[in-house]
Write a structure and sequence with these properties.
50% strand; four-stranded antiparallel beta sheet; eight-stranded antiparallel beta sheet
């Protein structure tokens, strides 16, 4: 299998040429995980970080508690399941933050993509079907979101899969593990 990679807009494209005669060539386009920037919307005189770097947070989790200049206690919440990539470092003498300060970067746990089959080939995947992508013995579960002639959009909730090094990728529709 030969792999070619190109960047198209916000999608990374992988052209996969499968040598087996029963499998047609196909292309997988993957949108990079979304990065959410968490900014301060008002000044804070004191705050407490409740999230840590490289730790997963879930929608509704409290990331930061703070007290604004009106002495009101406020919270900044996670808007989706994400991995905390970066937290602004504050010195001990710095008790608060200012409106507009970048406080945190969160990386989404969800990836969106498209599988394109040559010549509008229909692989028979169904909307809602769980499909396994395999790359050198590591698997990623994807869910087929929509089906058009020769292409399938999908969502994956595993950003740990090596989307950037797609060599020897297999698509398995039987939900078994990778070999």
């Amino acid at each position: 299998m030969n792999v070619g990679k190109a960047l198209l807009g916000c999608f990374t494209t992988y052209s996969l040429m499968i040598s087996a005669s029963t499998s047609p060539s196909f292309t997988i386009e993957v949108e990079p995980p979304r990065v959410e920037l968490v900014y301060a919307y008002e000044n804070a005189i004191a705050f407490e970080l409740l999230a840590s770097e490289n730790v997963e947070v879930f929608e509704g989790d409290i990331l930061i508690k703070y007290i604004n200049e009106k002495n009101e206690e406020k919270k900044i919440l996670a808007t989706s399941s994400s991995l905390v990539n970066w937290i602004r470092k504050h010195s001990f003498d710095q008790q608060g933050f200012s409106s507009g300060d970048l406080l945190m970067k969160l990386k989404s746990r969800t990836i969106y993509g498209v599988i394109r089959m040559p010549g509008d080939t229909d692989e028979g995947f169904k909307v809602g079907q769980l499909v396994t992508l395999c790359n050198r013995g590591v698997s990623a579960k994807i869910i087929i979101q929509s089906k058009e002639k020769g292409s399938y959009t999908f969502v994956a909730n595993d950003v740990s899969f090596e989307w950037q090094s797609k060599i020897d990728i297999n698509i398995m529709d039987n939900n078994h593990g990778c070999v």
